[in-house]
Amino acid sequence: MEINRLTITGQVIDVGSSRVSPAGVPQRTITIEHRSRQLEAGAPREARCQLKVKIAGEDLVAVARAVAVGQQIGIEGFLTRSGFKGSETGIVMHATRIRVQGFANEQEHG
């Protein structure tokens, strides 16, 4: 079995609007910016990236409604390609768990 799991923390830099998929599943997309110092080959290195995160399902979208730009967030999920057209080469994270600072209940989907 192949493994595709990502756990990352970051600051929310964009919160998209909520929508409902054709199958009736509530969805929202947010963008986070991750910044940290990591050790690579024995030397410290700054790690920075921006990542789009797709959030789907009643429970997780309810948590995402509590998210604001500038807030720290922790996300677990998996990576997949962005879009279905062959010309799109980006990646997007699909959230399976979200931890929001200050939100009383961690929500987990799956």
Brief summary of the model shown:
The chain is mainly beta and 110 residues long. It has one domain: OB fold (Dihydrolipoamide Acetyltransferase, E2P) (Beta Barrel), CATH 2.40.50. The protein is built from 1 helix and 7 strands, in the order ββββαβββ.
Count of individual beta strands: 7
Low-confidence stretches: 104-110
State the secondary-structure class: mainly beta
- Number of H- or I-type helical stretches: 1
Shape: globular
Mean pLDDT, as a whole number? Answer: 88
What is the level-2 CATH architecture name?
Beta Barrel
Number of domains: 1
Under CATH at level 1, the class stands as: Mainly Beta
In percent, how much strand structure appears in the residues?
A: over 45%
Alpha carbon gap, first and last residue: 18 Å
Helix fraction bin: under 10%
Spatial ordering of strands, largest sheet: 1-3-4-6-5
Instruction: Write the element-wise H/E pattern from the N-terminal end onward.
Output: EEEEHEEE
Q: Measured on Cα atoms, how large is the radius of gyration? A: 15 Å
- Kindly report the CATH topology: OB fold (Dihydrolipoamide Acetyltransferase, E2P)
CATH superfamily descriptor: Nucleic acid-binding proteins
Largest sheet: 5 strands, mixed, barrel
